[in-house]
Design brief:
single chain; 327 residues; Immunoglobulin-like; six-stranded antiparallel β-sheet; 43% helix
Length: 327
């Protein structure tokens, strides 16, 4: 009975995901702003252990949409049943699994309070705890038991729903102890892995934008390069306001300013994921988790040989540089 508030609140955190995406707004429409698939794409850069799964989904929009719909329905049902206390132990395992997935995928996100990491570890702990307590007095499981339904007094009902677990007390004690030790270990490990929160220097990858430049090359007077936004706030992009190509002598042979980047042709942007690099009103926008190859033609290199440098300028003042290959 004393875990009722924990069950209700934890249940709402999952049911509310369904409520927000389906009832309050339509966040399952890939054509509208706030599409949950793009939010899922934000998990990609520093996900722990499940990055290949995320990358596969965000690279295949159709599969991603089905996965997001299924995930939303599962969250809604699990959260609702958990609040109602119906098949509580099954739902507690589901809550633990959902929280564990959130922890691995997005535990590194959160600009101020390590938001997603806290949601993940507390969800794991809540699911584990309520598996042992069951739904308690204020749960539909208890109503079924009190009404003396035959199935509600079977061994399987105790395992799947509420009531006394059909285990010896010594076994329950060991499972509770070792499970709690594992969850504490998971908490400390992920806190250190994502944020350096146990020892050493603290870091938060969600604060400042960062862009990785790769495969930059200049061939036949055409510059191509790939950008991947791997750090920074997830709710808005990195705003690119400058691109420079510098020849071996230090001369700037190409310079695109803020106005030109805001009009960058979309046919020269090849996006890999659902979160897309695209021109905005005042800059070229790079959302978190987006990766794209950009092509700029008609570069007057004047036959110069040696190492060219590519430099990108963010509106925050951050700059990123890369050598340019000359095939």
């Amino acid at each position: 009975m004393f875990t009722t508030a924990l069950r209700w609140v934890a249940g709402w955190t999952y049911f509310s995901a369904f409520w927000r995406r389906v009832v309050l707004e339509n966040k399952l429409n890939p054509e509208e702003a706030g599409y949950i698939g793009e939010k899922f794409n934000h998990f990609l850069p520093h996900a722990l252990g499940i990055k290949p799964i995320i990358e596969n989904l965000v690279s295949n929009p159709d599969s991603l949409w089905y996965a997001m719909v299924a995930f939303t329905i599962i969250e809604g049902l699990v959260g609702l049943f958990f609040m109602l206390g119906l098949f509580t132990r099954v739902m507690s395992v589901a809550v633990l699994g959902l929280a564990f997935g959130i922890l691995l995928g997005s535990g590194w996100l959160g600009t101020t309070c390590l938001d997603e990491w806290q949601i993940g570890v507390l969800g794991v702990a809540a699911g584990f705890t309520i598996f042992f307590t069951g739904g308690g007095k204020y749960a539909l499981d208890n109503y079924l038991i009190k009404r003396k339904f035959t199935f509600a007094h079977s061994k399987w009902f105790g395992i799947l729903s509420s009531g006394m677990l059909p285990l010896k007390q010594s076994a329950v004690n060991k499972i509770a102890l070792f499970g709690s030790i594992f969850i504490l270990g998971l908490t400390l490990f992920t806190n250190q892995y994502f944020h350096g929160g146990v020892y050493g220097k603290l870091h938060n990858l969600s604060v400042s934008p960062h862009v990785i430049i790769s495969d930059a090359q200049l061939e036949n007077d055409e510059l191509t390069f790939t950008v991947f936004r791997d750090e920074g706030v997830d709710v808005y992009g990195s705003f690119l306001i400058g691109v420079k190509l510098i020849d071996p002598s230090g001369k700037v042979v190409l310079e695109l300013d803020q106005a030109e980047l805001s009009q960058f042709p979309t046919n020269r942007i090849e996006n890999d994921y659902v979160a897309e690099v695209k021109p905005g009103k005042h800059s070229l926008i790079l959302p978190l988790g987006a990766r794209a190859t950009l092509t700029i033609p008609n570069i007057d290199s004047m036959g110069s040989s040696g190492n060219y440098k590519l430099e990108l300028l963010d509106i925050s003042g951050a700059t990123w540089r890369s050598d340019v290959l000359m095939p």
